[in-house]
Amino acid sequence: MKIRKGDNVLVISGKDRGRKGKVERILRVEGRVLVEGINVKTRHARGKRQGEKGQIIQVIAPLQVSNLKLVCPHCGKATRVAVKGEGKSKIRVCKMCQKAI
């Protein structure tokens, strides 16, 4: 996966198309990502103890990785990511400006 925790991303499809946010968590097995403030769903939670009232809770739902594009910190544009190997380490490179991310 070419997107990591802490990256800024742009949503390219879905109801939140065009919005930017920061990656909070990555679910690798599912191929999904939690993005701060994007794809917020409403859940109705029942009271856990007798006499306690239920609540309406805002929960961030995960997005497919294919619906996101990484925003380059150097050029500020939504871009694809290339992976280049330098010795034993690999670095991510912006396809627009060719700088390391």
Helices and strands in order:
Elements: E1 8-11, E2 20-27, E3 32-35, E4 40-45, E5 55-60, E6 63-64, E7 68-71, E8 78-79, E9 81-86, E10 89-94
Antiparallel strand pairs: 1-2, 1-7, 2-3, 3-6, 4-5, 7-8, 9-10
Notes on the structure:
The structure is a single chain. The protein is mainly β and 101 residues long. It has a domain of 65 residues. 0% of the residues lie in helices and 48% in strands. A hairpin with a 4-residue loop joins β2 and β3. It is elongated, with a radius of gyration of 18 Å.
- Count of DSSP-assigned helices: 0
Tell me the overall shape: elongated
Number of strands: 10
Give the helix proportion (percent range).
under 10%
- Mean pLDDT metric: 94
In the sheet with the most strands, the strands line up as 6-3-2-1-7-8
| Major sheet characteristics | 6 strands, antiparallel
- Low-confidence blocks of residues: none
> What would you call the structural class?
mainly beta
The gyration radius over C-alpha positions equals 18 Å
Distance between the termini: 14 Å
Instruction: Name the beta content range.
Output: over 45%
Helix-strand pattern, N to C? EEEEEEEEEE
